[in-house]
Amino acid sequence: MATRCLAVAGSLPLLSASTAAAAAARAQPLPSAAAPRRALTRLSVATGGDQQLVTAQDPAHEPDYGVISLHHVGILCENLERSMAFYKDLLGLEVNPARPNDKLPYRGAWLWVGSEMIHLMELPNPDPLTGRPEHGGRDRHTCIAIKDVLKLKEIFDKAGISYTLSKSGRPAIFARDPDGNALEFTQV
Description:
The protein has about 190 residues and is α+β, with helices and mostly antiparallel strands. The chain has 3 helices and 10 strands. The protein has helices spanning about 15-25, 80-90, 150-160; strands at about 5, 40-45, 50-55, 70-75, 110-115, 115-120, 140-145, 165, 170-175, 180-185. The strands form 3 sheets. The protein has a 4-stranded mixed sheet, covered by helices on one side. A 3-stranded antiparallel sheet has the order 1-2-3, with no helix packed on it. Strand 8 (about 165) and strand 9 (about 170-175) form a beta hairpin. The model is unreliable at about 1-35 and about 40-45 (pLDDT under 50). InterPro entries: Glyas_Bleomycin-R_OHBP_Dase (IPR029068), Glyas_Fos-R_dOase_dom (IPR004360), GlyoxalaseI/FosfomycinResist (IPR050383), VOC_core (IPR037523). This is VOC domain-containing protein. Pfam families: Glyoxalase (PF00903). It comes from Sorghum bicolor.
């Protein structure tokens, strides 16, 4: 009977328990020890209607290339200076001067978000800017972990930035940058 595998938690390859433990030991600590990693499983669906769960402990599912972390998120912007005013001046993100802006065929900037980065790219946006959900949690979004949602709420209020709070009641704010890109700021 033929089967096909579907990743339940996204389309990323899975780590075995021993590989995951080794990767966690090598990784830098998370901002909050209260934020555990999710266990990943694969769902194998047989063509005959049988369903079977295959857990991440199965050595056959170990990736051989070694996922470490998210390196950066690319965000399109229409005007680099306007976006820098939002990300650098309002949010306080620092520029990574070591990144190769002069080697790319478009203007951009790399901004630190903890140990990862946002890459602002001044390029035309192929996505529609109208008809997007008011609440950024129901749209493609980038999530940034922060220490204090209430302080960011005060900053947004003072700057006149529109936002919505998490619909689940957890401490998180959703806003959009000057180009309509959805951002989530979650308290950890």
